[in-house]
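Here is the promised in-class demo. Please do not try to memorize the tokens; focus on the logic of going from shape to residues.
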């Protein structure tokens, strides 16, 4: 029978491989200062990472989808395709739902450009598009890794999907970072707003649309039960996002950048972020990738030069962790607050009335 453990022994391998890759110069760790910006209204302890050295990092060309090109510059290079850079390769495994399943190959790679030590990626071995939803087996594999690593140090997984999500690589990958404090910024807020019926997905009272499902599988669940359970939890959030977009496209098409109400949409064209811990899945649909500081409303008195500054937000933003690469942008975020940044890059919520209580949306 298939056991429920995948990528056994990952924690010590991540640690030793990270130290070796850093020493060999195969991996670029960027130092950052962490500024805590607690939101007064919600009490969420947002973290802003200020990493000026990252401003020099080459950015992926969204058309080519890669930070590198082949010698003739005509074909984009997929950094997540084999052969893998051996220093960054931590583990490979074919994960099967059960003994009869052919399974799916996954690779664990260290992030070559990390701001957090031991930031790593779970990559599909065969090319899968980043614009496809996380599959039940992928959700199970990510959750199993979180569970395994969590016995030593809490980790958080995230997924950027779509043009406006902060994603820069088209080859499917989920990312993982350790949470050294043991508490992710949204943990307490989610705990305080969880519904009476834990199986019900819910929306947190926030100024942007968001959907959360708690993860609490029966302890006796087999691997295939877990795959089905986790796949279902993710699908519930995807359903809510699609329904939310459908309703928004009729009531407020401009919020989706549409000129007129429409019923048409392609799943592969939707942008959203997913944050996952061992305890919950949190999905946030996206309107745009960057927040842009405005002159009049955002910058009241002083802040010259700040209008027009942009803050790129990926899934970590919706985990409560925002990255800025220059001081003027850091000042903008301090001034307007992280929630305002997130509100601008998310979609308006449709049901959001009582900020004291989460709304059941299931
Ligand atoms: P994507 O989903 O495509 O995009 P991303 O995480 O937003 O990273 P991006 O590349 O846009 O970098 P950014 O300057 O915004 O993820 C691709 C991942 O693959 C990235 O982690 C990338 O570094 C990694 N990668 C690229 N080429 C690689 C290769 N050859 N081998 C292995 N890995 C490769 O942000 C810079 C970094 O900071 C990113 O890692 C980002 O995830 C991280 N980050 C962002 N916000 C953060 C925060 N608040 N705290 C800590 N880290 C944060």
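The designed amino acids, position by position:
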């Amino acid at each position: 029978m298939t056991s429920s453990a995948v990528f056994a022994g990952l924690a010590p391998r991540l640690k030793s491989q990270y130290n070796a890759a850093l020493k060999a110069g195969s991996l670029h760790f960027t130092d950052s200062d962490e500024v805590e910006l607690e939101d007064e209204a919600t009490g969420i302890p947002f973290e802003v990472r200020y990493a000026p050295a990252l401003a020099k990092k080459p950015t992926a060309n969204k058309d080519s989808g890669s930070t590198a090109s082949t010698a003739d510059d005509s074909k984009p290079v997929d950094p997540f395709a084999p052969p893998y850079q051996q220093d960054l390769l931590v583990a490979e495994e074919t994960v099967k739902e059960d003994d009869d399943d052919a399974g799916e190959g996954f690779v664990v790679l260290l992030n070559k450009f990390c701001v957090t030590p031991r930031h790593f990626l779970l990559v599909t071995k065969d090319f899968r598009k980043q614009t496809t939803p996380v599959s039940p087996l992928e959700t199970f594999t990510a959750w199993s890794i979180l569970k395994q690593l969590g016995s030593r140090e809490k980790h958080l997984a995230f997924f950027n999907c779509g043009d406006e999500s902060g994603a820069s690589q088209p080859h499917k990958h989920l990312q993982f970072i350790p949470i050294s404090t043991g508490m992710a910024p949204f943990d307490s807020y989610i705990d305080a707003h969880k519904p009476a019926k834990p199986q019900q997905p819910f929306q947190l009272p926030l100024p942007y649309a968001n959907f959360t499902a708690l993860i609490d599988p029966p302890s006796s669940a087999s691997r295939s039960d877990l795959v089905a359970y986790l796949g279902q939890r993710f699908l519930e959030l995807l359903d809510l996002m699609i329904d939310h977009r459908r309703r928004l496209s009729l009531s407020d098409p401009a919020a989706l950048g549409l000129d007129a109400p429409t019923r048409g949409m392609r799943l592969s064209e939707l942008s959203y972020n997913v944050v996952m811990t061992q305890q919950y899945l949190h999905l946030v649909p996206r309107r745009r990738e960057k927040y842009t500081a405005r002159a009049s409303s955002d910058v009241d008195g002083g802040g010259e030069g700040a209008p027009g500054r942009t803050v790129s937000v990926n899934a970590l933003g919706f985990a409560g962790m925002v990255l800025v690469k220059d001081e003027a942008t850091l000042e903008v975020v301090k001034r307007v607050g992280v929630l305002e940044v997130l509100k601008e890059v998310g979609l308006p919520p449709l049901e959001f009335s009582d900020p004291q209580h989460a709304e059941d949306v299931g």
